[in-house]
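Memo to structure team: turn this sequence into structure tokens by end of day. - J.P.
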Amino acid sequence: MNILDTPNCISNLKESTRFRQFLGRLQNVAEKVVRQMGIMSQMEAGSMFMARATFGYQGIKIGVIVEAVEDIEWLTEFLVPWFSISDQSPDISVRVSTSPERFESQMKRGSAGNLLNAFMMDTNCIKFPEWNVSGHSTAMFDKKHGVFYLVSPDRIELLCAASQARIRVCLMRVLRELAMGSSQLTGGRFVHASAFVAGGKAAIITGPRNAGKTSLLSYMLATTGSQFLSNDRLLINVDDAALEARGMPTIVSIREGTMDMIPGLRRTLGKSGFSSSLTLQEAHDLGPLNEFPSREGRHGISPRQFCTALDCDPIQRAPASALVFPRQTGSSGTIDMHRLEPGKVRKRLEECLFGNIGPRRLSQAFTFTPPGLHGGCVMSDGSLLDRLARALPGFDCELGQAAFASDAGAESIMRLLSGGLPQH
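Reply from structure team:
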């Protein structure tokens, strides 16, 4: 038997000076490598490497601690550039822990009998049962993903029984909810919209579900060289004179119809191996999938994978310049653009508000205002619609069955940003 397999030898090694010096050198090398990505690993109790990073969004700084540097790499790829990497001390930390013993102990405490609003979605919210756990202001159990959310005033812990790839999405949702809550409490508003940027200006594509927002966005990105700002959630800084728009990363859900309408998109994604829980490198290493992942006729990929598939660059923010309201007509034809009167713009904008996301509709578990960030004026839904309708030109965009067959439609939409369309 190899003497290094014995527990006593391992214990003695941990106490030896030479072993500690070796760990110190190894630690220095690890820190040097990961700092290049804005990530830092450090040795913690129990001789386990923990990967750390701090992400910033609109004034809030969120520290992340995980057991695998690959999870930080995935999170960084998913969130940046909309979130920034920060070297400042975090306002709140989020940690992922794996412990079957602790998980089992928490499970035995049982449910408190009520549900809490955890993640605010477009038309509903994801609720989890509150759990009887002492020492935390809030504790919830997510049965689907097998994770406890243990929430304290300045710390959130995601506790799992075993390592699992799907914890990445859970972690991302916590950071996103913290950022959304903080942004809305300090005066920002989110709208249900996609957006691309050309010439430094953002065109906001908005409308109800299945209006063709992602399809039109994909077409514009694939044909015009524009930059990708957002796919589903867009933050509008209503206190800013320029109405700055900032993206909020989400899983990009591509419908089967979009796959067929954008030439080459299905083939590109099919060969890529892309999946929302993988980094670009991990997808490359795994190779093409036998069947592209599908959920209810939709395919979920990360924002960075979306940009890679369409050969475009992401951008964090840009001043809003126009509103585009797509409508799939189902008839023959391509793209027809019409300028709308402000009154009609406001009416159409009523469909762009999230039914369950707003400054008065926040998560009961993941809402946090950093010290020093003062709450802004919370604009009502009506005031928001009035502001956007007055400040931005709006265009009705009819999408015929051949809307994306050529670049001609994209060229007419691009003229929108330079005021090239007449008013009807």
